[in-house]
Amino acid sequence: MNNNLGVKEQIQQNLQKRNKRLMEKAVPALLFTAAFISVLTTIGIVLTLVFDTMQFFRHVPFWEFFTSTKLSPLSREPSFGILPLINGTIISSLIAMCVAIPIGLTSAIYLSEYASERVRKLVKPMMEVLAGIPTIVYGFFAYSFVTPLLAYIIPDLGAKNVLSPGIVMGIMIIPLVASLSEDAMSSVPNSMREGALALGATRLEVTMKVIIPAAISGIIASFVLAVSRAIGETMIVTIASGSSKNFTFDITESMQTMTAYIVEFTSGDAGSGTVGYYSLYAVGFTLFVFTLVMNLIAQYISRKFREAY
Questions:
Q1: What's this model's pTM, rounded to 2 decimal places?
Q2: Which of 22, 219, 255, 264 could staple 162 via S-S, CB 3.0–4.6 A?
């Protein structure tokens, strides 16, 4: 009887070992499949953009697309200069960074160097809630609250303008700058703080001359990622900035960004297979290159100025 139980247990143990070996072989294959699907999806997106962008450039000269300041895709004699869209994208992103960098960086300095552990645990999650608000809510906030408020200060401000969505985009990306910068500054060893304080430096001097230089790679990377986020923003500028395709530097006027142009045309203004339809892919490809370059710059800065402790 005991011998029979021993055989059963041995068989069961062998089955368990076999299942374990099979699982050990299956898990890497599943993980590889998941990673391969992600890579394959990225390749598919890039190839779609490239092929349809090539269709566009069969009808519109490359030089005209990147140098013309006239964009009127639905007129009788359409023109497809992308400069008004690039101009609107860069200006709205610059306004956003003028708001996000000072507020985000000072918030990060406070949380990292001045706030108590209790305050940090309370304030940081509350700040990061801003990042979870849907962007369409930010868009209506910009259009229905910020624009009328700014109109009291700037009487000539248009109902649709690039200033209001730029400010609200800056508010939206404050948590990104603050959180990543705070993480970078918190990773600086305490021994560096204590050493500087022991030499007689004030807390502000320690922050400005020791902590920020030591964490500069992470701080700059947070700025670049925030710019990338602002460049790709869609709903806020679509709602609050309008769809004017004029090439202007006046921030009180309506401007259109690359993402807003794509949203406008995918709503059905351009028939499938037309030049206007393929212009979506040309604009999308340009936007893809913009964000890719920004991400590469962020990675380069992180590696170049990274301090190892």
A1: 0.82
A2: 255
